[in-house]
# Entry
Amino acid sequence: MHKMINLFGAGALILSSGAYADNTVEFGDAVEGGIGYEWTVNISENGSLEYVGAVGGKSSWEPEFTDPDRGWTHTSDWTSLTLESAKLVTIELYRQQGVTYSSTDRETGQVSTNTSGNCLHPVISVYKGIDTTTESEKGSFNPAGNFWSTLEFSNIAYDIAPDATKVMTTLILDAGEYSLNFGGSNGAIYTEDNAACFNGLHGFRAKISAQDVPPSL
# Structure
C-alpha cells in the first residue's frame, strides 16, 4: 500500500451466493508496476460485494493544491476492477465508523493501532483501464479528469452538502478493465478549525453491484 497502514480484518465481505461466488475482492495489488492499487475486484456474474477501508479526508480535494490535480494519489484508495462481460454497474461509497488500522512510523518503524475518523464526505472517481506502466507516481492527481497516468477519465460522484455521508454512480460498462478511486472532499467543507474532520484518515464502506444491461438501455 502507499499509505503505511494495514487494515485489520481487511478481507472483504462478499455478499453473494451460488454462482455469484465467482465475484471476488482481494486486499492487494494484482499487477506489477503502475499505480499501486489497494484492492483487486473481479466480476463475472451478477451480484454485489462490499469492503471497508480508510482514506484521507482531503484525498480527493486538497485546498493547498492547484487545479486540476486536487487529489492525493497516496492517501486515496485505488481499486482495479475487471468485468468479464458488459454490466450495469452501481458503485456506492459510504462513511463507515470504526475502521481499525495499524500505522508504521517511517523513521522508527514503530507500529501503532488506530481507529479511523468518522467524518468522510465520500468521492468516487471512475477511469477506464488499469495502470501498469507508470514508473513514478506523482503525489497529486486529477479526480475529475485525465492526469499523468494512462487511465482515461469516465465519471465522478461527490456531494459537498454538510450532511452528505454517501455517494453513488451507475454506469454501463463494457467488458474490460477499470480503475476506481475512493477519496474524500472534506477539504472543501471543513477548515483547520475542525481538525478532527479536516485531517487524518476516515473510514469508508464500498459496495459494487453488477447486473445484466437491460435491453432498453
